[in-house]
């Protein structure tokens, strides 16, 4: 396992590059007689595979980072705080989109992976980690996405949640800790229910999209129906997601 840190890019180009990187790694591995995988939890004893989404918000007029405010004690602007509040508000629903397979939930609630809903500055346990190192290095890190997440969906859902916070001027709660935050969903089934119940996020992403997404995931749930033994479930997860 290794970590790939990608160069920041504007807009949809970030998601495009992520897809190209993944596809390139899969093809290079195949050419060398190997198999690469982005399965969220391949081995129960090893750290899970995530796909953290780092992003900032730039002004269309000036190009300046709107998350940064040099006058604020923590360097974070009102926009940043409202954006954080929006993501926290929708985190349970977002989990269905950022952890889209049954196997993804073996990664969550584990060391070095998100388990509860809270934000913190440079907090590697937070579901939303904040970096505040000046105008060119103030950004948010959505740590919920798994290695099997779709970067386009992650981007769209994160933006939709953040914009809800800005448009409605949501109040950002104080930075917290792992024990203080509400728990993220523990299963795909739970997360899908949270997604369907989040009417604001459903409206922002489109009812048709959410409906098709949920129906596709329900097919996965049916494949595991009746499987109680965890080793049998893990074997089926590897067969499907590896």
CATH architecture: 2-Layer Sandwich
- Determine the CATH topology: Creatine Kinase, Chain A, domain 2
Give the oligomeric state: single chain
Mind summarizing the main beta sheet?
Answer: 4 strands, mixed
Uncertain ranges: none
Q: Percent range for helical residues?
A: 40-55%
Q: What's the number of structural domains?
A: 1
CATH homologous superfamily assignment: Glutamine synthetase/guanido kinase, catalytic domain
| Number of E strands | 6
Biggest sheet strand line-up:
1-5-4-3
> What's the N-to-C terminus distance?
14 Å
Q: Give the overall average pLDDT.
A: 95
Q: Which CATH class? A: Alpha Beta
Structural class determined from secondary elements:
alpha+beta
Shape: globular
Care to describe what's here?
This protein has 242 residues and is of the alpha+beta class. It is built from eight helices and six strands; from the N terminus they run αβααββββαβαααα. The chain has one domain (37-241): Glutamine synthetase/guanido kinase, catalytic domain (Creatine Kinase, Chain A, domain 2, 2-Layer Sandwich), CATH 3.30.590. The protein has helices at residues 13-31, 78-89, 91-98, 151-167, 188-197, 199-205, 207-224, 230-241, and strands at 53-55, 116-117, 119-121, 128-132, 138-142, 182-183. A hairpin with a 5-residue loop joins strand 4 (128-132) and strand 5 (138-142).
């Amino acid at each position: 396992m290794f970590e790939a840190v990608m160069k920041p890019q504007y807009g949809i180009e970030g998601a495009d590059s992520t897809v190209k990187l993944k596809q390139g790694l899969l093809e290079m591995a195949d050419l060398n007689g190997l198999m690469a995988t982005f399965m969220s939890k391949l081995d129960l004893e090893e750290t899970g595979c995530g796909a953290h989404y780092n992003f900032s918000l730039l002004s269309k007029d000036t190009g300046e980072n709107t998350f940064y405010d040099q006058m604020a004690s923590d360097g974070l602007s009102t926009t940043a705080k409202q954006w954080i509040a929006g993501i926290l508000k929708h985190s349970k629903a977002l989990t269905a989109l950022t952890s889209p397979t049954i196997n993804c939930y073996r990664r969550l609630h584990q060391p070095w992976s998100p388990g509860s809903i809270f934000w913190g500055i440079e907090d590697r346990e937070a579901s939303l980690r904040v970096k505040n190192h000046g105008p060119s290095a103030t950004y948010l890190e959505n740590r919920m996405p798994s290695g099997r997440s779709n970067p386009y969906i992650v981007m769209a859902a994160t933006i939709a949640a953040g914009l809800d916070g800005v448009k409605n001027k949501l109040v950002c709660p104080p930075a917290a800790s792992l024990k203080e935050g509400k728990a993220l969903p523990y299963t795909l089934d739970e997360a899908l229910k949270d997604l369907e119940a989040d009417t604001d996020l459903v409206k922002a992403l489109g009812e048709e999209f959410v409906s098709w997404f949920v129906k596709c995931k329900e097919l996965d749930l049916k494949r595991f129906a009746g499987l109680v033994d965890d080793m049998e479930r893990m074997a089926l997860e590897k067969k499907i997601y590896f």
